[in-house]
Amino acid sequence: MDGLTRRRLLAVAGVTALGCCGGFGAGGEAEPTPLDATAVATAVSGSLPTVTEPFPVLVAASHFADSQRAVRSTLGELPDPVPSTGPPDETTRATVRRSVERARENLSAADDAETARERLGELGDARSSAERAASTWAFATDELTRGAVRSRALTLERRVDAFREDRPLVGDPADPVRALLVHSIVGSLAERAGDDATPEWDDYEPASSDAPTAADAEAEQLPDARAVGKRAGAIAEGRARLADARQVDERFTGSLTDPSSLEATFVDARDGLTETLRSGVAEFPGPDADAAELVGTDTEGAGRAVESALRQLHADAHYFADREATADPASDVLARYHGLATADAFETLRDRVSQGDELGVDSAADLRERRDEAVDAVETALAESEERRLARDLLAYPVARMATTDASLREWDQVTLQQAAVGDRARYYIEFAALARATPEAVDETLVELGAF
Question: Where is this region: Disordered (predicted)?
Fold first, then answer.
């Protein structure tokens, strides 16, 4: 997957569009009868399985403590409280105050985190917010230059490159899955640290009047204190991610009795899974397929939620199949594994629809049934998968996304909800039920390619 990335969920979209009574659609046709909001809320009020992404390394307490100290040290560079008057301008002072507040909130959230992965993430965010505040203030008070910030980025970039080049892909041949998961985590952290060293498009604007060299004069420059602070915050988070990558890598390597190189194992597994995935997806409709091609039957009979689920699975399967190999074979293996499950989910869901299975969502009862099917499928996949850690790696995001979907369907101030809006959200339950059903077989194929089955 793309990092946690698909690993970090977007905030739930506003739910006001869910409301509104029935009316008339295009051409004067009556729209479906709205659904009772209370019945919808009841339909999505059950519990969900607890599924977290595997993190098979014990992070040292000292590493967490070092990160906390770094945040507090950076915050200590600022006046406390931030002055309410005088230079810099109020907009800049407000930016600093908000960043300080976010850093403190992240520190508190890190203390309450239930997993090491979550705690590292909160501390990384705290590092970013604290540095954003400190550098914004320092630049606004003439204590920091753009050149100093650019130098930090270049230093981070060099360190990330050196870390990637020097890191061997070792593990215990008797447990390649643990090594696969760890190296994927480390690789993802290092990749994101490298991204943090590179400015985003909105970090710069043309302004070279203060450029010290001819080369700098042709480059885009950081425009103001707030942009400098944002850029410095991203670099600080990159430093935190690189430190986390080192910690996870060192703790894992230190836990091995007799480490052996598994690079060839990962590369061979990647190549084998890629061939299987691409040969399967080659039989699918093309990336630009219309609704009829995707569903394989009458689209109106399938329903909006089913069509949306099929479209997402189809797009994801093509994405994974088209993804090229990278310098991180461990992450590549996991991506191919996710792709196999996604492709199978699309195929089996499409077959069910073609065979006449009724999976539409026309009532609150239908919604409950689709959600219950997804929950049951996840629980079954976790119980029946030969390697539970791989199953968790695939299913953690769907369960988290179902939780936000539940919340979006419970939060409203209308009496009724539009069927179309409910169907748009119900597609997650249909999509993830199909994905969960495909998980055990995808796990088996991955284990075979890793030589662990």
Answer: 74-96, 191-230
How distant, in Å, are the alpha carbons of 26, 94, 236, 239, 323 from that of 104?
Answer: 51, 16, 16, 19, 39
Angle at 309 between CA 305 and CA 312, to 5 degrees: 140
Question: Do the Cβ atoms of 233 and 99 come closer than 8 Å?
Answer: yes
- Number of Cβ within 10 Å of residue 259's Cβ equals 17
Between CA 389 and CA 262 the distance in angstroms is 18
Q: Write out the DSSP string of 155-178.
A: HHHHHHHHHHHH---EE-TT-HHH
* Identity of residue 134: A
- At a CB cut-off of 8 Å and minimum separation 6, what does 338 contact? 1, 320, 394, 442
Within 8 A by CB and 6+ apart from 415, the residues are 36, 37
Cα–Cα dist 96/393, whole Å = 37
DSSP β-ladder status, 260-261 and 170-171: antiparallel
Per-residue model confidence as pLDDT tens digits over 357-403? 889 899 999 999 999 999 999 999 999 999 999 999 999 999 999 99
Instruction: In whole angstroms, give the CA distance from residue 406 to residue 42.
Output: 10
**What 3-state class would DSSP assign to 247?**
helix
Q: What angle do CA 200, 89, 204 make, to 5 degrees?
A: 15
Provide Rg for the chain, Cα atoms.
Answer: 25
Q: What are the pLDDT digits (tens) for 272-324? A: 999 999 999 999 999 999 888 888 876 666 889 999 999 999 999 999 999 99
List C-alpha distances in Å: 98 to 94, 130, 210, 235, 293.
6, 10, 29, 19, 50
